[in-house]
TrEMBL record:
This is 3-methyladenine DNA glycosylase AlkD. It comes from the Bacteria. PANTHER family: DNA ALKYLATION REPAIR PROTEIN. It holds the Pfam family DNA_alkylation. InterPro entries: ARM-type_fold (IPR016024), DNA_alkylation (IPR014825). It comes from Bacteroides luti. Signal peptide: none annotated.
Length: 222
C-alpha cells in the first residue's frame, strides 16, 4: 500500500476505536485538538504495530491536526531519517502536554542528537519547546545519561529559572527533570538539595510547593 492507502486504513481504524467520553474528558482538561477520537494509548500501539516505520507516513500523520495522528507519527517515524531540522519543526508544532510527553517518550529520547536538542530547547522562550527540553532531559537521565560540569550548571540555571516562571508546563517539566536528576545518585541528590536550600521561603506558594515536592522525591537517597 502507498502512503495514502495506509492513512485511509488508519483513519478507518481510528473511527472504529473512537471513545467520545475520553475525548470529552480531554477537552475539559484543556487538551485541545482539531480532531480527537479519544482512542486510548494501548489501542494506538496496536495500530502502530501493524505498519513498518515509514518516514513519509510519519511526516504525513504529523501534519494533521488530529490527536491520534500525531501520536502515531512519533511511533512510526524512523530515527535515521529524522534529522535535527525536522525535530525543530516538530517541536514547534507541539501545543499541549500530552503530545509533548508522548513524542519525547516515543521518539525524541532515541535520537542520537537528543542531548544537544534538550539543551537547545530548554533555553527557548516558548513554553512547549522549553518543556520538551526538560522532558527530554528527564528521559535521558532516567536512562543513566550523564552531564559534564558545564552542562550540569546550565541545566540547573535553566531549570530553576523555569520553576520561577509563569509558564505552568515549563515549571512542571523542569520539576520532573530535577527529580529525575536528583534520583540518579546520592551525589546528584545532594547537589539538587543544596540548590533548593538557597531558595527557601519563596513568595509564590506554587513555587514553594514545587520545591518541597522535589525535596521529598530525592531526600530519601541521603
Amino acid at each position: 500500500m502507498d502512503t495514502k492507502e495506509i492513512i485511509k486504513e488508519i483513519k478507518t481504524q481510528l473511527r472504529l476505536s473512537m471513545n467520545g467520553v475520553a475525548s470529552q474528558s480531554m477537552r475539559e482538561k484543556g487538551l485541545a485538538y482539531k480532531v480527537n477520537f479519544g482512542v486510548e494509548l494501548p489501542r494506538l500501539k496496536e495500530i502502530a504495530k501493524q505498519y513498518d516505520q515509514n518516514h513519509d507516513l510519519a511526516q504525513t500523520l504529523w501534519k494533521e491536526n488530529v490527536r491520534e495522528s500525531k501520536i502515531l507519527a512519533g511511533m512510526l517515524q524512523p530515527i535515521d531519517t529524522f534529522f535535527p531540522e525536522i525535530a525543530d519543526i516538530w517541536v514547534e508544532d507541539i501545543h499541549n502536554s500530552e503530545i509533548a510527553e508522548l513524542t519525547c517518550m516515543n521518539l525524541f529520547q532515541y535520537l542520537p542528537y537528543a542531548p544537544a536538542k534538550s539543551f537547545q530547547w530548554m533555553a527557548d522562550e516558548r513554553e512547549y519547546v522549553q518543556a520538551c527540553g526538560f522532558l527530554l532531559v528527564a528521559r535521558l537521565v532516567g536512562k543513566g545519561g550523564e552531564m559534564n560540569e558545564r552542562a550540569e550548571e546550565e541545566f540547573f540555571d535553566q531549570a530553576f529559572a523555569a520553576l520561577f516562571s509563569s509558564a505552568y508546563f515549563s515549571r512542571k517539566s523542569a520539576t520532573l527533570a530535577l527529580v529525575k536528576y536528583g534520583q540518579q545518585s546520592k551525589a546528584h541528590a545532594e547537589k539538587v538539595l543544596q540548590l533548593l536550600a538557597k531558595e527557601e521561603n519563596p513568595k509564590d506558594e506554587n513555587v514553594k510547593l514545587l520545591l518541597e515536592n522535589i525535596k521529598l522525591e530525592i531526600e530519601y537517597l541521603l
